[in-house]
Amino acid sequence: MASATAPTADWEAVSDTFYRKIQLYTALWDADFNLNDYFLRGAPYGGALALWKDDSKPQPYRGPLSKPSIELYSSAGRLIRKIAWDKGSIKGLGWSEDEKLLVVTQDGMVRCYYDLQGDFTQFSLGNGAEEYGVKECRFWGVGFVALLGNNKLVAVSRYDEPRPRQLADPGLGEEGEIHSWALIPPNYTLSRHVEVLIATGATILVVDASETQDQVLQQGPFSHIAVSPNGKYVGLYTAEGKVWVISSDFQDNLSEYDTGMGNNLPIDMQWCGNSSVVLVWEDEVHMVGPGGVALRYYYDSRVHLVSEIDGVRLITTDCCEFLQKVPGMHLWGPAVGVYEIQTENVDVTESIFRIGSTSPASVLVDAIDQLEQCSPKADDNIQLIRPQLAEAVDACVKAAGQEFNVHWQKQLLKAASFGKSVLELYSSDEFVEMCEVLRVLNAVRYYEVGLPITYEQFLRLTPEKLIQRLLNRQHHQLAVKISEYLRLPTEKIYIHWACMKVRVSTDDEDTICRAVVAKLNGKHGISFQEIARTAYDEGRGRLATQLLNYEPRAALQVPLLLNMEEDEIALDKAIESGDTDLVSYVLLNLKKKHPLTNFFRIINNRPVASSLIESSAREQDRELLKDMYYQDDRRVDGALVILRESMEQEELSAKLEKLKLASKVLGDLKEHALESKTIDESSRLLQLQEVYEKDLPQKFLGLSLNETILDLIRLGYNSRASKLKSEFKVPEKRYWWLRLRGLVAKRDWGEIEEWSKQKKSPIGWEPFFNECLAARNSKVAALFVPKCTHLPAADRMDLWVKCGMLAKAGEEALKVRDLNALEKLRQRAKVQSEIGELDRMIAQVKPK
Amino acid sequence: MAPTIAIDTAQIREKALADLLAILEGVRGKKTLVIDQSLSGPIGLFAKFSVLQDYGVDKVHWLHDAPGDIAQKNILYLARCTPKNAHLIASQVKYYGKIPDQDVDCSAFFVPRRTLVCEKILEEEGVVGDITIGEYPLYFVPLEADLLSLELEHSFQELYLHKDYTSIFYAAKALMGIQQKHGLFPRILGKGDNVRRLVDALLRMRSEVTVDDALNSFALTPSSTIENLIIIDRETDFVTPLLTQLTYEGLIDEMYGIKNSKIEIDASLVGNPQQNAPAGSSSTSATSLPPQSGKKRTVVLDSSDKLYEDLRDTNFAIVGNLLNKVSRRLQADYEGRHQAKTVTEIKQFVSKLGGLQAEHQSVRMHTGLAEEIMNHTRSDLFNKSLEVQQNLAAGSDAPTQHENIEELIYRGASIEQVLRLLCIESCVGAGLRPKDFEFFKREILQAYGYHHILTLDALEKMQLLQQRTSVQTAANARTSYSSLRKLLRLIVDEVNEHDPDDISYVYSGYAPLSVRLVQCVIQKQYLQMTAKGGKGVGGAPDVNVVGAGSTGWKGFEEALRNVKGKTVDEVQRGEDKAVRARMILNGQNEKKMTIVFFLGGCTYTEIAALRFIGKQQEGKRKILICTTSIINGSKMIQSALVN
């Protein structure tokens, strides 16, 4: 770009600020292309334009072959893709901030075209959309709101997992007239939920998820509503043809402007940045700035508006322009224009800098001019601004970023470079960074790419997303170059390239595979899974398998393998990944798909899989578990399942039934005869318990054998207890213990005393002593001390002491002539008779 | 990424809380929290109910309760990602959807991640459209500064009975999280088949992270603050947890069952609830547990109670003495008021008073607890079973113990108690003799009910209680305690409980095999000396401690051959340049950390023993203990028990 028209040539003042209109691209379409016939929606951040025919206008007949379509163009008018559209009337079309194209049909079907190549996901709005039809839609960065035929609103706030939900009922019924409506995106509202402004009657309703609020205005009906990009302001077009700007909380009145168009309503109204409102009538554009001052532009044809965060794109058949407030505060020097970005420490006021500005930055830019002419004035300039030189350099660097014209970018950067060469200490980071960014911006602004993105937008969009946009446009080469240049990861680009290759290449599969692998080999972080999936989706199954083998992450291979019906491989890969969830997921799928026997065969030799099935079946699907055990010939496990079932039965007969079955299964197995027998025993016990329960005032069912015997003895049914003993072959030892505990519990001391007369006990006599003592009957306990003959005297002495019979203890001590123990006992003795007794014994033992 | 930072458990706690609050914040307005009961304990450790209230939680319901009146429009589910929970959530969402005129907004957060299976269940139940699904990546919960637990209550049962390796995967995820933050474990050592699985998963995750995050490869260079990771599969040593723990904390666990650092005890032991300053007020109110009716009170046992910190790891035998000392000191401190003459002195005393009262409260509670435990330990049943345990562990002829076990059954001891003994016998002695096996099977079924056929079957499947087979199975098929007893000196006869010189004090004479295995790596010399019969000199630290980590299992191959399962020894290297850079950045003489991970759970005694080793090596090494959950013998038996 050779010519150096003054950078302020396209500036215009609006009260005290400047606006500029930059021509970005020319000759977008051929002259015979009539933009009037189309609707146009542009993606934010200089993104693609979507055009579709306006059905309401008469169209020239182009023969039966012309099919309706949505056409995607770059801002420079280059066709990116034509998407065939046969779903009928389009009731809403818009873009998300990551350049997804959303198309909403009359019946509430939403298609989300996630790349610019016509691939889409689809969902339905529901909530009555089918019944009443969609009237209109409004979009924001990540979602949209649809207005239905019954004047209800449905919002979708994300596209990856869309969940359409109805907003509060505006209460207009089906007949209520809505003049216009708009929305405030969730991130700008207090509630953090989307809010919708509806103009009806003379007022505006604010609708959110839970309630509708009437703002009680009188200036309506408003034929247009527009919300500023930062959600703070609302522009309204009133019945008298005025533009009225208010704050979005309806508290402050900001400006009013009379368009003078009377009843001639504008076609569109959009914000230009956050400072002004742009109105369009067929060929006339008004830009209403702050304070109600307007600029007017005239065109030859219909103008379409695309609102951006920092301006607005104006699109006509023959050019694409960008209208914005000149960024930051600006100043106008005598020789050149330099705008300075507002920084905290610079006290910038228009009145100082406007005409005859001597701001350091503008002097610095002048200096570079002088330098090029080899004039010594260059140095004079520098000396003049020496104290503010650092500021001036900063300002030049920043101003360069705002410039679309390469000449002025260079000029400003040169000035900055010159300035900083004089400075001793200056961090060049920002300068370097700006140079890099500008290179990138210029590259993507090039008309063949057609992304007219501003510096502000670039910062907001982030470099990663810019790369994604390039990929959507198939500019892989440029994307790689930019990524490398900005030191960003490139693997995604390669993957994207490979996917495209797989899709569109007409080579045979081996060649494609070789080409892809050759290109991607040795690069970190390549997900072959994604490429393989693309191949599979394209119907190239073998290629998909080949590519999948290069995927290092087992877990990622699984879903695709499942799709490809490579079930067993999928299962193996899932097991290999160690992720049990993945294994379970595969198993769930396989179980649905395969007949049971086949399913069991698959899991049979994979222990990880079969244990997972086993444990989930144990909880949820007993029958499956039984089938599985049967299939595997694990008869014991099968019988145990039946046993478990029997425990869960309420009815005794059902319980017995199950037990019988379990016993039968086990009985067939020689090595489990014991278990089988035990189960029979348990049936027998249950039957007996049922009888007892009928006869005796006590619950028996569910008790164990020992507990049953114990309770019978406690209740005094000794004969029944001993019958149980013999029937179940209870060992003598155990029976003695149970009888003892039962009698003690019954406090049947007489019986115990009787019992103590027996000569021998299979469990010894100590337990008798202990149990009686524990029941606090030392008298009976004492009966058993002499019977504990196998104990040493000292122990027996302790037993006596425990019963509180010190004299008896003394006798034991006397037997072994233990003087020491006797003396200890003597000390403890309290009762006179015992003391006497013990003294006597001590005397016997004491050596004379 | 700050790979040079040493592991700080407080950060893990803060992160867990921050993540939780972010989730709560994501749902606008007042909300009802419906929580999986098994999560309330772990979450209560770091999130107080009042904090949840600040973030809009209005009410808390249990997930397993039937859905009832919900006052709030927003319902937030927080549940472990089990199919059962997914079904419960689905049915509740459906229930709320059917209530006319009620518009509810449900979101479900699965812990520790949203799984394909849960999503599929929600999908099949047809509620996917009505619910926002998210995840809450809660893996490690810090119980103490040196103790991280995954708090996976059922991990023991899943691993050894159901052979469900989910907890291994979560363990790997959790450890991977540490590696991503602090660098690779330079060396991973471990014993047990499940350890092999865990380490394989870790290695695989490492390579996958490299794939995912190609630019950040510096993050995955070996850590300079962590020396090694030692993983012990519970399966290698079932006997240790089966024995009755004899430290103070261990016995509390045996008696009351510590759950998420909390126990429920009789209110009278705690005393005046208002003054329950050290243990209670700091965190009891943490969860939303509805106040227990009756006289039970929940008490948090952690190091915020200084006295407890001193007592917890000591052998119970000396707890009484210690408590006496403390109460005498307290007495003296109170007496201090008489010496306070001047106004300043009085002022000083008064300022101390609050602390004294708190301490007093704590002494009172612990005295009460200790008394209760004492009553228990004096009981005949306890002593009989302890005697049997110690005899079995020491390798005395098993059948001689049978009479005692029989008597316990006849006297109506709990089934856990009896099975614990039989399992010890089986594990120590390679199974019971067929005759004994059959005898006890019959005794147990007749004493405790025939349904225990299932219990016995489960124990057999877990290889806890088996019949001795004559066929010699493959090498490493079971842990041979009889050889290890000598090789690693598991039995130490003279135990000084007051001033212990060996980890065996935690079981009054038996050194936990699992911890001995850790010593094989970090206290080689000491262990070699001990094993040769020479007494380890008062916990003399190894001379070549620094080099010790680099030799792995070296020197103890013979012992390892006698332990069940595969032996793992993996060295993780990074690019040389990066390693050197990191060494320069950190200097080399820093205190290194050993992470001990118990796969399948550990006991309080093992924690005590490791802390004891940590103290011996103070200044040279820090030990961080990680586990899937905290277990004890009863919990092990209960995992097989059929009710």
UniProtKB/TrEMBL annotation, chain A:
UniProtKB keywords: Protein transport, Transport
Highest taxon listed in the record's lineage: Eukaryota
GO biological process, alphabetically ordered: endosomal transport; intracellular protein transport; vacuole fusion, non-autophagic
One GO term describing the cellular component: endosome
One Pfam match: Vps16_N
InterPro entries, A to Z: VPS16, Vps16_C, Vps16_C_sf, Vps16_N, WD40/YVTN_repeat-like_dom_sf
Domain Vps16 C-terminal, first and last residues per copy: 526-833
GO MF annotation: an example: actin binding
Domain Vps16 N-terminal, first and last residues per copy: 7-432
Assigned protein family: Belongs to the VPS16 family.
Its biological purpose: Essential for vacuolar protein sorting. Required for vacuole biogenesis, stability and to maintain vacuole morphology.
Protein name: Probable vacuolar protein sorting-associated protein 16 homolog
TrEMBL record, chain B:
Coiled-coil region list: none
Pfam families attached to this UniProt entry: Sec1
One Gene Ontology biological process: vesicle-mediated transport
Disordered: region residues: 274-298
Biased composition (Low complexity): 277-293
Entry-linked PANTHER family: VESICLE PROTEIN SORTING-ASSOCIATED (PTHR11679)
Family: Belongs to the STXBP/unc-18/SEC1 family.
Name the UniProt record assigns to this protein: Sec1-like protein
